[in-house]
Amino acid sequence: MDDDGRYRDSRSDFIRGAKDIAKVAKKQVGKKVGRGMDKMTDEYTRRSYKRFEEEDDDDDYAGMPSNDGGYYRNDSRANDDEGHSDSTEGHDEDDEIYEGEYQGIPRADSGKAGGMDGVAAVEAQQFRDLSAFEGERRKDQEELAQQYETILQECGHGKFQWTLYFVLGLALMADGVEIFVVGFVLPSAEKDMCLSEPNKGMLGLIVYLGMMVGAFVWGGLADRIGRRQTLLISLSINSVFAFFSSFVQGYVSFLFCRLASGVGIGGSIPIVFSYYSEFLAQEKRGEHLSWLCMFWMIGGIYASAMAWAIIPHYGWSFQMGSAYQFHSWRVFVLVCAFPSVAAISALTTMPESPRFYLENGKHDEAWMILKQVHDTNWRAKGQPEKVFTVTHIKAPKTAEDEFIEIQTATGTPVQRWAVRSLRICKLVLRNVASLLSAELRFATLFMALIWFCMAFSYYGLSVWFPDMIKHLQHEEYESRLKTFHGERVENFQFNFSLENQIHREGEYIRDKFVGIEMKSVKFEDSLFEDCLFEDIRSTDTMFENCTIRSTIFYNTDLWKEKFIDCRMENNTFEHNKHGCHLDTTDENDVLVYLVSFLGSLAVLPGNIISALFVEKIGRVRIIGGSMLISAGCSFFLLLSFSQSAIIALQCLFCGVSAAAWNGIEVVTVELYPASKRATAFGVLNALCKLAAVLGSSIFASFVGITKAIPILLSFTALVCGGLVALRLPDTRQKILQ
């Protein structure tokens, strides 16, 4: 009997172990097959939701009075399902394994498998399970989209959405400010930090490069770790490095801080629009996303006004010796960080997107946030007694196995963090690759072309306009150039400033240049003998092919680099000034601030028109029409030959193109499902910043050479983008997927 008992115990242990092994094997095979699921997850995007509006008696939808499926409290079946979560995996009887299976004895119903061997049978079963799971998941996602829209209708539009509107508006405003900061400080920074032309060009482009990287990274992370959390991280990075950039002295450190600041703010646009759209019902979405775009214009106005008010006040500065200098343009950089800091403070009071929670199977968290939205809105409308009737929200089934493995992995906290970070990176890249899947390929390619064409023209002309105005000012300045030839001056003290002059073949004997400023002065083939230069401040001043003998330079900024091919004999340099110095008398920069202010203000009519008519005319017509009209405005630049004409056409171009930008951002939100929305927006916005880099570089290179090439490039890009935009699908009546 003892032998029989041991035999039965051993046999039971063997069978139990075999069952466990088979379950693990089945699970691993399912994982391998499941990697192909992502290619199918968005197939539902091509299906219409119209049937959900027409079939009021459909048993799958709980929001209807006759058959509510347990979503609302007045449903008799709701109580039965309160403890059930659709995203929780229960016990599956099919996982049970027949004892004789591991003894080579087939199941009684295995005859249907024909001549398939054991492995083929298991794989066939896995594919059947996969197909059933995928079909159920698509159905769940369709039900979620329809039900989520119904819940937003019940929550209403009110205080909560308007509060979120202003909070996210600050983040969008910070993005608008970031675009203008470097352009406004560059005229002062180039003199303060002695920047060469290549360094100036790199400083102008570095922000776009940072924003390009930031848009891609933060957009992808927003779909994996949450909209609110990602936006807080990105804005924090922007604020910290914007603050540091106002204090650093060297060019390389300033360049790095502006790059990091750009990386941080790059996440603003992709996340803000995705975040806000998921709190808006269908009939409010286009209009209020267009109103949100107005904060980008407010950011430009804020930056222009602050530059105009702060930078010309050169008295707002201090210095510690000659090594550390803090001029007014650094005060401006510091002030420009305020919108980002304010956005961070306000965003901490707002919740995560409930749609993001539902996409990740977090039913309870999403329900609490939607109830908060409902109660906030109806309480503000004077109806606090109105009850939130939703008790259950359909959450799509998600494969959590790999995340559970990450969370329970062995190793140090650093190792677990590294594994989790690597896994998130892989998921982000997989999400990016899915944008070119069969369902989304044409939408992505069309939107990429439209974003690129619009950004190439808009940012290219945004750089070209002020550069062209500066070029016209420079031409006018050179027209007043004074030339002195063969003059001989002895025993004379120059106590007046020299500006915009050329002195050729002159002789200066025992002369004194004391306490004066030299601006745009050039000495050629001249002789200086026994002269004194004391307390001299110079800008664009040089000595070329001159002979300088027995001359003293005391407390000047005339360095050896300013003496080109000169013969220096027995000269003395004492207490030379180190570093570059600002030109406090240049009024041309103030005109640039004014032009940028007017250009930002001109966006207001375009914003208002697009917000009022985006639902009536449609997104597609607004984008296409605005881009084609903008192309016409750019073509008229060929006829502009004065500063006033360029300023007027700049305002017209900015006002018209604003409507196209608003429509593009609304359509981008509506074309992509929630699980890929921020990723798609980030990829397209990164492409936008790449186009901005190309447009700015190409257009700036033709300033002073020809106007025709930049204008024709802009015209061609806008026409192509406008024609492609007219082929986009109309998304006005589309429920967010």
Automatic annotation (TrEMBL):
Membrane protein topology class: Multi-pass membrane protein
Pfam family, one: LD_SV2
Residue numbers spanned by region Disordered: 25-95
Cell compartments where the protein resides: Cytoplasmic vesicle, Secretory vesicle, Synaptic vesicle membrane
Record GO biological process: chemical synaptic transmission; neurotransmitter transport
GO cellular component terms, semicolon-separated: neuron projection; synaptic vesicle membrane
NCBIfam families named among the record's database cross-references: synapt_SV2
Protein name per UniProt: Synaptic vesicle glycoprotein 2B
Gene source species: Nothobranchius rachovii (bluefin notho)
Gene assigned in the entry: SV2B
